[in-house]
Every structure is written in structure tokens, then in C-alpha cells.
Design goal:
The protein has about 400 residues and is α/β, with parallel strands linked by helices. The chain is built from twelve helices and ten strands. The chain is globular, with a radius of gyration of 25 Å.
Amino acid sequence: MPSGSDHRRVGAVGELKVVIRKLLTLVVAVVVAASGSCVAEELRGAWLSAWSHGYLTAQEVDATIEAAKKAGINALFIQVRKNADSCYDSKLEPRPWNVAADFDPLAYTIEKAHAQGIQVHAWVNAYRVWSSSKPPSDPKHLVNLHPDWISKDFSGNTRSTDGTCLDPGVPAARDYTAKIVLDIATRYKVDGIQWDYIRYPGRNWGYSDIALSRYYAETKTTEKPDPKDPKWLQWRRDQVTALVKMVHEQVGAIKPKLVISASTVAWGDCSTDFTDTDAYGNVCQDWKSWASDGILDANLPMVYKSESSPKSAKSFRGWLTGLAKWSGGKPTYVGIEAHVSDAAGVLAQIEAIRKAGLQGFVLFAFNQSGGRDALVDALASAAKPAPASAPEPANSTKN
């Protein structure tokens, strides 16, 4: 029979086991909570267009950073190239008329945004190089220097509904565009490069003399291909993909943590099969493969649907289902057209994105306006606090 001291020893051991169990429970709870907070991190982005006020002067940048901080925005996507021009210091392309020669919007935005824990991504228009119906007056503009690089439609026209575009099937145009991006990535502490107009204007385009000559040589045909010819469509998809792949590899070699993303096409209602989407079948933008092949670190599909229309709101949510299915294991930051819905509508779409399990959103656009002020107030009063900084894509192939 155990002595009294044995009873006390057994009792002490029992109490120690209880304490250990409680500690283990507490540790598990902390780990789960920490894991949950990581999953809950989202990118809360906003686009800033170079067409209007928002970052074209120091005062505008300061106001934008203040608004972003108040709204919980943790990433800004600023348009640094809209028409083969440069909203930054560049020796390759001219300044736009609305940016002073002695001000570098990109450098200043990076300095001020990073100080507030906000990422800055350089938004680059890839193939659309001129939007006006009148040609550029500057003889050194890309459109005037290299008319042979300009895309043509089946009938020989050079102006699309997008404007004047480079032909993705011209290797020299591809190399030049990659050089633009590499210059930005090398000289600026951007958090990412975001492609726009990384596509053809439509399936009727891509008939420049250089592109056709290459296609004839590669396919051993001499007949001008029909716009809907599956082989011709795939060839053009491959041309766009070649630029995405080239830049991902070149930038990755010098800035392996820099995120390469793209604002991608999500027109109409979402199809059940990606090959039936306009992105794949009309503008030759195979963003699904870019993600799954590891040459796109994040997708920013422009799901521009008004929440005020039940049909449009349903279409928005239909796209969320498709985007989750076609993510290729990469983050999806859904583009929201903020000015077509009221603040309540924008908040409803943000909540739908969260419920779909996607990783964030990007608002178009965050330029100065009364609409921005109202949206900032609505976002500021929303319940969830913003993460301290935007998350890095969890499944990036970069080290």
C-alpha cells in the first residue's frame, strides 16, 4: 500500500499531466489561429490610370497614399506605360504630355507607398501602343519608327477598337517590349510587373507582313489563314505566350521575388470550358496555361460587372467559380470595376470573392474623384482590418 508521500507524488504527477494537456491545447489553438490568419490574408489592390489625376504629381501621390491607407488598400498597380510612353525616367520612350519632366511618378510612389507598407506594381501596356485616331506627332514615337511592327487585320487595317497595336508575331517587337520591362525591373524597387493588353485585339488581327511570313515558313503553307483557323489561332496564342515566358525568365534571373501578373480578359458570361472563353478563342490570351506553367505569378481577371443588375451580378459570381477552377495554383486577384456599382455593390462583390476562396481584389480605378472618396469611406468602415502588407503569391515558382 503506497505511503502518504506516494499519494502526494501521484497527485502531483496527475496535476502536471493536466497542465501539459492544457499547454498542448493552447499551442494547437495558436498554430491554428496563425494558420487561419495567413490564409485570410488577401491582396487589396487598386489600379491607377495614367489618363487622369491620381499620381501625376507629388501632391496627387500623397493624397492617393493617404486614401489607400484609410481604405485598407495594400497594393497599388500604377500605369507606367499606356501608349508606348513612360510615366517614369526612361531613355527608351517619351514622357506623356501630362507628366512634368522633373518628376518621376514611379520613384516617388514607391518611396511613399513602401513607407506605409503598400506594394507598388508597375502596370505596363504590352501591345497597345497608341489610342488616338490621329497618328503620333513625334517622329521618334514607336508607331512612326516601326510601322512594320504594327498589327493588321485580315483586310489590312491597322487601327482596332483598342487602338494601334504591335503584332505579337513580330519577334523584334517582342524583344523591344521585354527590354522596356527589364529596364523598369532593374532600376526600380517595384514589387511586381503587371501586364495589360497582353493579347491580340481580336481573332481578325495578327496579319502583319512579318508575322505572316513567319507563319508561312513554319507551317509550309502559302495561303493566308482564315481568322478562325485553329492552327492559326494556336500559332498566335504561342506568340503572346512567348513574351510572357521571356519576361518571366529574364526578370526572374535578376529579381526572383518580383511578381509578374496580368490583367486578363473575362468578357461576357463564364463558360464551363476555358477554351470557349474570349480570352482563349478570340484574343489568344491563354492565361490559364500561363498560370499552370508557372510563367504568371498572379492573375488579375477584369470581371467588370455591375452589381446593380441581377443578371450582371450573377455573371460576376459565375466567373468566380471559373477562376477558382482555372487558377493553376496561382493567386487570383479579381478586378472590380468600382465606378459601375455604388459602394455597397463593390463591398458585395468583395465579399463574394472572399466566399469563393480567391485571394484578393483590385479596384478599377483609384484615381482622384468624388467616387473614390465615397468608396474609401465605405471600405474604411467595413469590418475587416487590412493586413499589414500584401501577401506574396504562396505558389510562386520564384525563390
